[in-house]
Records
---
Amino acid sequence: MEEIVRGVKTFQEHGYTERKALFKELANGQNPEVLFITCSDSRIDPNLLTNAEPGDLFICRNAGNVVPPHSNVTGGMTASIEFAVSILGVQHIVICGHTDCGAMRAVIDPAGLDSVPHVKNWLGHCRAAGEIVKAKYGKLQPQHMNDVIEANVVMQMQHLRTHPAVAVQLAQKAISLHGWVYDIKSGDVKVYNDNADTFLSLEEAYPEFINK
């Protein structure tokens, strides 16, 4: 905790001062272009990964980068998605999974989850991803981790489409969905291509931005 407190002081003395004009502008409101949904894993830093400034990303984090299918039961993710899309008017939604994901490891081997019943119930939203990979290989084992991580990102994108606020904007072609997998070790990002039903490199997925 000492390092965290000292970090706040460093931010106040340096980081804040360097961006004082930006924070003055942000004090009156936010206008992010992107809703970034990712895992709670401490190794994932959305702003660091995207080189984004404060105010650029509206970030939602939870174990397994889960988007529960829409229901009449209000939850934090459902409310945050509705707010980001309907009030803030984000134009893009990124669902970002990552390598070595503990949540996906639990999907593969749920033994021991009985002691954490809320975690077990939450990861039920990822069950279909595990079943898809199991059907592909005939079994589900630790070496299938990357397949489960990718399948989960695709599954959460499908869940996202069930949210009315998102569905309306998709119908009007006013919003775009993006599925990413971040490799912690290499820094690489793979991007889901819906037409090819596969993950491409960042360069292959966004040539119009990379080669600009």
---
Amino acid sequence: MKVRWNGLALLVVTGLVVLSCRYVDIPVALFFDGLLRWSVHWRHYAAHIPDALTGAVFVGTALSWWGYYVARRHGRSHAAGFLQLVGICLPASLLAKAGLKFVFSRTNTHAWLAHRASYGFHWFQGGGLYNAFPSGHMVVFSAVGTALWMYYGRFRPLYLGALGALALALVATDYHFVSDVLAGGYVGVIVALASRRFLAQPGRDRH
């Protein structure tokens, strides 16, 4: 049953990404580009947002494992399980997004809007202007959000709202196309589910 649902989810997300690439990405990018042109300062800021994701992942991973050992020492098994999952999700999501970006080599939105690169996928080119798909921010934060969803379900509307706001910000600043964000969200969920399955393997400490 899980295999069937996983296959269905992959099919649905793939369909949405394909439809977005064909009919949504360009109009939405042009729409927000037009809005950004109204303010020179905001447009400059949006085009030069620093990418601190890698540093944040390293710091978050270190803090998660530190918190895990502290929680475990104090007998807080639920918190320890969550922090252990996050400690694996963060570096795993960073590796996943780096590998997929290299494979797909999608033109980033700013480069396309500046007419410095052609729209689309440039398979296995990697780096430079071809680093948009999937959105690394969505991969990382969706993985953490999924971990929160599994361990602290009472605040699920808050997690969805935060991820939705992040997705909107990435698209509204022309940092990503819509399809980049859709794919990133899906990959993040898969990373979290795979990490939890890894931790649940026989012989591992489940606390």
---
Amino acid sequence: MWYVLEDMVPAGTTRANARETSIKVHGGILHTISVLMPPGSKGLSHFQLRKGGYYILPRNEDKSLYGDHLNVQYKEWLELPAPQNRLTLKTWNLDTSHDHKVRLLLGVLKKDVIEVEEEYLKTLKL
């Protein structure tokens, strides 16, 4: 299952007054995070992804991801039990003239589905 978590971050949004956008996903394993940042932000639009107080991307809470025209995919393995499945995108935009979009595609599958897939891939490598 794929989920979209995005925010159009207004110009002049500082880290001190960063925005938070949350999404509730079905229980399972967060296995892939695709980061999509359209061209034009010139590295001024920043984000962090977390689950509660746990920083998923990047892991160090004092850092952020940023860039211009990013399309990057990260592999992950984070269990999201059904009652504890809220992910939060924290965004800020140091561009004082233009709003910028941050979009994440989140791949979440049930653990047994991923385990079957991994076993199949192992057999192909033999």
